Automatic annotation (TrEMBL):
Protein name: Transcriptional regulator, HxlR family
UniProt keyword terms in alphabetical order: DNA-binding, Transcription, Transcription regulation
HTH hxlR-type domain mapped to chain residues: 13-116
Origin superkingdom: Bacteria
Record PANTHER family: TRANSCRIPTIONAL REGULATOR, MARR FAMILY (PTHR33204)
Record bears the keyword Transcription: yes
Coiled-coil ranges per UniProt: none
Organism: Chryseobacterium profundimaris
Length: 118
């Protein structure tokens, strides 16, 4: 399959690159998509999210959660209990990434088959 993107002008090409770069800036890195998948799957508390993602450190998880919250992909709710309970939930906005995540899953599965021959 050698499909190409539609022919476009230099300006259209740069505009496409800019918007893709914007998207990658929000979801890039080793952990963000995995954190999003974990929260969309129902893991809400910090330790639940941490346990669901092998090899992520607490420090990195905390940083990435703050970043995802800033981009309005997740919501952090603090309950005034003893001990304090903090939950992270998916926003409606994060579900706009569902098709992207599904396509990444499909591509990754096909790539794994191609490279590993499985």
């Amino acid at each position: 399959m050698t499909d190409q993107l539609p022919e476009s002008t230099q300006t259209e090409c740069l505009a496409r690159m800019l918007t893709v770069r914007d998207a990658l800036d929000v979801i890039s890195g080793k952990w963000k998509i995995l954190i999003i998948i974990s929260i969309m799957s129902g893991h809400k508390r910090f330790r639940e999210i941490e346990r669901s993602i092998p090899k992520i450190s607490s420090k990195v998880l905390a940083k990435e959660l703050k970043d995802l919250e800033q981009h309005q992909l997740i919501k952090r709710t603090v309950y005034d209990e003893s001990p304090v309970l903090v939950e992270y939930t998916a926003t409606d906005y994060v579900f706009t990434l569902q098709k992207v995540i599904e396509e990444l899953h499909n591509w990754g599965a096909n790539h794994r088959k191609k490279i590993l021959g499985k």
